[in-house]
Amino acid sequence: LGQDTEAFVTLATTESYCIGAKVVGKSLRRHGTTRDIVILVTPNISQRTRLALQSIFDKVILVDLMDSKDPDHLALTGRPELGITFTKIRCWTLTQYSKCVFLDADTLVLCNVDELFERDELSAASDPGWPDCFNSGVFVFNPSLQTHAMLMDHAIKQGSFDGGDQGLLNSFFSNWSVEDIRKHLPFIYNLTVSSVYTYLPAFKHFGHEAKIVHFLGAVKPWNLPKEGILQLASVDNTHYLAILSFSESLFYRCVYVFIIEGYLPGGHLPFEKEQMEHRRRWEMGEMDYMGRDAFQNIQKMLDRFLD
């Protein structure tokens, strides 16, 4: 079987996620993948948007929307909108391909990752929230109508323990954590934003090896308020958006990296030496509590971000 029987696949169920999906497609293309790049879209995506996606993706495929309609389990995640992620199981219907790699629309490919096609179904990286579960933002699978039918049956009879696709897929592929270590992708293939602050020493040590970044959570790089954008940078001649933002906790920090090509106004600005030094000191725990990092200054940024 040749490379033309393999594809990267992403999914857009809202107009907003189409922005992220475009970045997924462009980042794969930028880094020279030899595989097809496919996007599944639901009927609520406008014809205009679908035409725009055709300039990036090899195939734009319309699929029916699926919703778990499970508010009780979704309430545990605090993300009631994730019920429609059940639509993700439609990717098993792409039987024109022998093997695919699924990438959530809120991921960013940092280099060529075609080696993922050497993995078997179901290969994925551990979820940082519960490492015996895999994170369903990046996974390798084999399209199959039989598997799709079994997943549909499982969705109807068993449902999902989190109300979304991740709970469903982990329940269906329940032996993932113990079956075959070769199906455990290294974390660098699904580096979630949360890793930046939960284990900063490891991030500083291994972060430079990251291959795919995943922007988990309700706040996405493409819908952050302008106040949250601190600087635009040029890294190795590739334009990235680096965003440092705060949420409910004053010292709860996320670093976003996002390709800006075509999705944000303006060009790029270099990192100022003083800003880089401030970031380094922050990461080392050397905050300027009496000056720039004083409580009232952080509170102002927090209030702008939450508004």
From TrEMBL:
InterPro entries per UniProt:
Glyco_trans_8, GNT1/Glycosyltrans_8, Nucleotide-diphossugar_trans
User: GO biological process: any one?
Assistant: glycogen biosynthetic process
Provide the E.C. number(s) assigned to this enzyme.
Answer: 2.4.1.186
Q: List UniProt keywords, sorted A-Z.
A: Cytoplasm, Glycogen biosynthesis, Glycoprotein, Manganese, Metal-binding, Transferase
Its needed co-factors are:
Mn(2+)
Give any GO molecular function from the UniProt entry.
metal ion binding
Which cellular components does GO assign to this protein? cytoplasm
Where is the protein situated, by its record's location annotation? Cytoplasm
Could you name the domain of life of the organism this protein comes from?
A: Eukaryota
Task: Report the pathway entry.
Answer: Glycan biosynthesis; glycogen biosynthesis
Say yes or no: keyword Manganese present.
yes
Q: Which Pfam families match?
A: Glyco_transf_8
Give the catalysed reaction(s), semicolon-separated: [1,4-alpha-D-glucosyl](n)-L-tyrosyl-[glycogenin] + UDP-alpha-D-glucose = [1,4-alpha-D-glucosyl](n+1)-L-tyrosyl-[glycogenin] + UDP + H(+); L-tyrosyl-[glycogenin] + UDP-alpha-D-glucose = alpha-D-glucosyl-L-tyrosyl-[glycogenin] + UDP + H(+)
> According to the UniProt record, what class of enzyme is this?
transferase
Spell out the family assignment given in the record's similarity comment.
Belongs to the glycosyltransferase 8 family. Glycogenin subfamily.
Known function: Self-glucosylating initiator of glycogen synthesis. It catalyzes the formation of a short alpha (1,4)-glucosyl chain covalently attached via a glucose 1-O-tyrosyl linkage to internal tyrosine residues and these chains act as primers for the elongation reaction catalyzed by glycogen synthase. Glycogenin participates in the glycogen biosynthetic process along with glycogen synthase and glycogen branching enzyme. It catalyzes the formation of a short alpha (1,4)-glucosyl chain covalently attached via a glucose 1-O-tyrosyl linkage to internal tyrosine residues and these chains act as primers for the elongation reaction catalyzed by glycogen synthase.
Name of the protein described by the UniProt record: glycogenin glucosyltransferase
Species the sequence originates in: Gouania willdenowi (Blunt-snouted clingfish)
